[in-house]
Amino acid sequence: MEPIAHLGWVQAPAPLESHPALAEACGLKTLLVKRDDLLGGSKVRKLSYLLASEAFRDAVGFHAIGAIGSGHLVATVDAARKLGREAHVHCFWQPPTP
Asked: How far is CA 83 from the centre of its chain?
């Protein structure tokens, strides 16, 4: 089986952080938190694979849509900058959550 192409922006698995006091408060033996934020976040990992795929490899730029403050939009703009491509982001206000 051929390996899946990726840009290699995130090489390591996300580290796990132990929280024994919170685990005890929740009645658990162990509580581990996956710290994907320390490696750029899951969005960077996803874009590393997506933008290396045949569908996006030779694209002049990328379009993305999301709510104002979207981490996905920030990651897409950063990825486009790293690759020397255009980024077109389309923002909308997120309705208040009841």
From this structure: 16
- Tell me the pTM: 0.73
The confidence score (pLDDT) of residue 12 equals 83
DSSP-assigned beta bridge partners for residue 63:
88
In angstroms, the CA 79 to CA 86 distance is 10
Rg (CA), the chain: 18
Q: Quick check: helix, strand or coil at residue 92? A: strand
Query: CA 67 to CA 46: how far, in whole Å?
Result: 19
21 phi/psi in degrees, rounded to 5: -65, -45
Could you say which residues of the chain have pLDDT below 50?
Answer: none
3 state DSSP class of 46: helix
Phi, psi of 14 (to 5 degrees): -65, 135
Question: By the 8 A CB rule, do 27 and 48 touch?
Answer: no
The pLDDT of residue 75 is 92
